[in-house]
UniProtKB/TrEMBL annotation:
InterPro entries: Flavin_Rdtase-like_dom, NADH-dep_flavin_reductase, Split_barrel_FMN-bd. This is Flavin reductase (DIM6/NTAB) family NADH-FMN oxidoreductase RutF. Transmembrane segments: none annotated. The keyword RNA-binding does not apply. Residues 42-190 form the Flavin reductase like domain. It comes from Flexivirga oryzae.
Length: 192
């Protein structure tokens, strides 16, 4: 015979069962907010991994990002956060058009390569299969779970990053059998 419980009971049961490895109630200590502690705390939030692409002087340039999110469904807007110190920042701001390729679970090496600081700007995607976006002409990674083409509508400075907001001009998604690459606590992960 099935037992039925309401959502409040389930929530209370889950909230009251946080324990550490020994079975003791889990405790959390407040700690000073530093760049490292903030990075570690935000690393607890699993995110998707994307490659952002644009054109600079006719060359494809790209960077790995996980600070990408939707902003609005109507009108369709998304954002990406880019460090002010990133070389990619100048390219995306000057171009005003960019692509987002949401990486699939097999793309961790590509993500790592495009996250590496100081790499050559020339030929960044020469070993990557991509297609050109019809709306923007930017490179879109062919193996991605989904990709979007955007045109910049606003750039906002926030601390040591710029928030680049883009109007989504086109998008495409892979079939349901493709799984995204995830990043959690400083490591790549994937769905089973």
């Amino acid at each position: 015979m099935a037992t039925y419980v309401d959502a409040a009971t389930v929530a209370l049961r889950f909230a009251s069962t946080a324990v550490d490895a020994s079975g003791a109630p889990e405790s959390r200590q407040a700690e000073p907010v530093t760049p490292r502690s903030l990075r570690d705390a935000m690393g607890c939030l699993a995110t998707g991994v994307c490659v952002i692409t644009t054109l600079a002087d006719g060359n494809d340039v790209a960077m790995t990002a996980n600070s990408v999110t939707s902003v609005s469904l109507e009108p369709p807007l998304i954002l990406v956060c880019i460090a002010k110190t990133a070389r990619f920042r100048e390219a995306i701001i000057e171009s005003g058009r960019w692509g987002v390729s949401i990486l699939d679970a097999s793309s961790h090496e590509l993500s790592t390569e495009l996250a590496r600081a100081g790499r050559d700007r020339a030929g960044q995607l020469e070993r990557v299969l991509f297609e050109r976006g019809r709306e923007t002409g930017v490179a879109l990674i062919s193996s991605s779970v989904a990709h979007l083409e955007c045109v910049t509508t606003a750039v906002h400075t926030a601390g040591d990053h710029d928030i680049v907001i883009g109007a989504v001009k086109s998008l495409a998604q892979a079939g349901a059998g493709k799984h995204p690459l995830l990043f959690h606590r400083g490591r790549y992960r994937w769905l089973l």
